[in-house]
Each structure stands twice: as C-alpha cells, then as structure tokens.
Design goal:
Blueprint lengths: L14 E5 L2 E5 L3 E6 L6 E7 L7 E8 L2 E7 L7 E8 L4 E9 L5 E4 L2 E5 L5 E5 L7 E6 L20 E2 L2 E2 L1 H4 L1
Antiparallel strand pairs: 1-2, 2-3, 3-4, 5-6, 6-7, 7-8, 9-10, 10-11, 11-12, 13-14
C-alpha cells in the first residue's frame, strides 16, 4: 500500500501509550488519542481535565473508561504530587490520593497501582475503590524512582532478578 506522511499536532506530549488501535498522549493538562489505523494518523479525542491545584499530569494509565493519573502542582512551589482517578466520559474526577514526593511513572496490575514516587521510592496503591485510592506501602529504592515497568511474568520469590524489582515483592 501507499503511505504518506501526516501531521498530528500535540502540545508538549510527555508520554505515549498504545491502547488497542489508539495511541494516547499526555499533553500536561489532558490526554489525546490518535487513531493510527486509518490511512493516516488522525487526532481522535482530546480530554482536558479540571484537576484543581494538582493540574500537571506527569503520567497516565488507562483501564476501562478510566484514566489513572500521576499529577503534580504546576507552580512547583511544593514537593507534593497526587494520584487521581478520572472518568474519561463524562470527564470528571472520581478519586484522589495525595502523595509526598514527585510522582512520575504509574502502572496498573489487577487492583494495584504502582507509582514511581521520586526520592520516596515506589508507592503501592490499592485502587479497588476508585473513589478512595489507598496507600498500602512504600518501597524504598536506591535512587529516585522516576519511572516504573512491571514484568509480565514475575519471579515468585519476590527478589531482584537481573537488577529488576519484581512486582510480587511490592505487595
């Protein structure tokens, strides 16, 4: 087939994630989806969130019709951030948990969110009740945790394997 270039303009995208046929982008104050399966990439949906004081999105994870967001104060005056659960449609905040430190990366597995929380290590959050996320524990890391990746097939003994922290150790 013939391919041609296409331009999709996003303001300050800081994270891209694929979900099915869509490519999702964090644009700081919202999320945008791009349809990559059409003849050319096309901007599909844009969500701008009213997040209050914690209005700078640092990362996101999508599940069901929800977005799990790590957010920080845009002013940068304090060293605090939060985890927010947002319903994509009708675009409203559902749950909130303030986290000390600088929350960056976030991933989901089952009912748990794992948040790379800067010098505070990794925060393990139970999001079973989406209206009331609950901090279960913090796992200290040698350096600041700036992002996180869970392996699909973790080792069952909860140790480090090849320098990678396994998720069963985090629970």
């Amino acid at each position: 087939p013939d391919f041609f270039s296409s331009e999709v303009y996003l303001f300050n995208p800081t994270r891209l994630r694929r979900a099915g046929e869509l490519l999702w982008a964090n644009t700081g104050a919202g999320l945008s989806s791009i349809d990559t399966c059409a003849g050319y990439p096309e901007l599909k949906t844009q969500y701008l969130f009213e997040l209050g004081a914690f209005n700078q999105i640092t990362d996101f994870q999508l599940y069901d019709n929800l977005a799990l967001l790590t957010v920080s104060e845009a002013s940068g005056a304090g060293n605090s951030s939060a985890l927010q659960v947002v319903v994509l449609q009708p675009n409203r905040a559902l749950g909130f948990l303030k986290l000390e430190g600088n929350a960056r990366g976030v991933v989901m597995r089952d009912r748990y969110a794992y948040v790379a929380n800067g010098s505070w290590g990794i925060a393990v959050v139970d999001v079973f009740d989406k209206t009331l996320p609950r901090l279960l524990k913090r796992v200290t890391t040698q350096d600041a945790a700036m992002d996180i990746l869970l392996l699909d097939d973790p080792v069952q003994d909860g140790t480090l394997q090849d320098g990678t922290l396994q998720d069963d150790y985090l629970l």
